[in-house]
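Pilot study result, target chain (274 residues):
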Amino acid sequence: MEEKRVVPMIHVPDVRATVDWYREIGFTVNATYGDDGDGLSFAILSFGSSQVMFNSGGQPSTRDRREVDLYVYADNVDDLYRWLKDRVEVQAGPHDTFYGMREFIIRDLNRFWITFGQDSAFGLLMNGIREGNVELVRTALGVAPDKGGVKPETLAAALAAAGDNNNAEIKDMLKKAGAVPPREVDAEILQSYVGRYKGEHGIEFNVTFKDGKLCAAPGGQQPLSLMAVDETTFRPIAFDNYGSVTFNVEAGKAIGCALKHGGHTMELTRAEES
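Predicted structure:
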C-alpha cells in the first residue's frame, strides 16, 4: 500500500517552460503528459523525497506574493544559494529565522516563492537540548559564524533551556562555548508582572508565573517561557531574534509593557483586575 502523503498541484501558464526551469535548479522530472503536438499539460517533479505537480491552465501574475509558496527542506542551504543566486530571482538571501531554520527565498519563472530551508544552528542546538542529544549540540556549536553560527545571546538562552535538562555534559559544553547564565530576577518581582496587558485593536498579552518562570503569550496562545535580559526586559527562550517584552514599572508596579518584534514596538497598558 502506498504511504499517505500530500502532493501540491500548481496550475501554471506553461508546463514545459516550468519543467525546464525546475530541472535547471536541481529537480528531477518523474513523469510528463500531453507531450504530443500541443506541448505538456501535466508533469510530476521531485526534489529528494518530496514531489510537486504542475498542471496547465494557470494565469500569469505580477503580484509580490502568489497563492502558493513551496517550502523545500534541503542540506547545505548556503552552498545551494551560492550555486543558484546568479541564475534565479532572489527574494531573500540566507538568513536565520526566529523559529530555528536557516533559509533563503527565490522566485520561479511564474513568480511563486520557493523557500529552501534547513535547521539553523539555533534550531539544532535547541533540538539537541530537548532530546538530550550531545552530538547534536556539538554539531550546532561547530557551525561557522558566516553560516549562522551560535551568538552569545543564543548561548544564554540555550543554557536557560538546559536548566530543565539533567544532562550535565550538555551544560558543560555550553559553558565552555561561552554561555553565561541569564540574569536572575527575584520571584517576587517576576510575580509583580503577572496580568493581562491590552493594546489597540483588541490586542491582548497575557503574562503568567509558573514553576519559578515568567511566561507570556498573545491572546489564548500557548505561553512561552521567558529569559531575563535585565530586571524589566525579557525574551522567549525557545525562539531566536523573535523580540522582547519590557515592563513599564512605576512605584514598584507594572502599569504596562512594550512588545518589540521585527523592528516594531507596540505599547500595551495593564488591565485592572475586576
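One observation from the pilot: The mean pLDDT is 91. A full batch analysis is planned for the follow-on phase.
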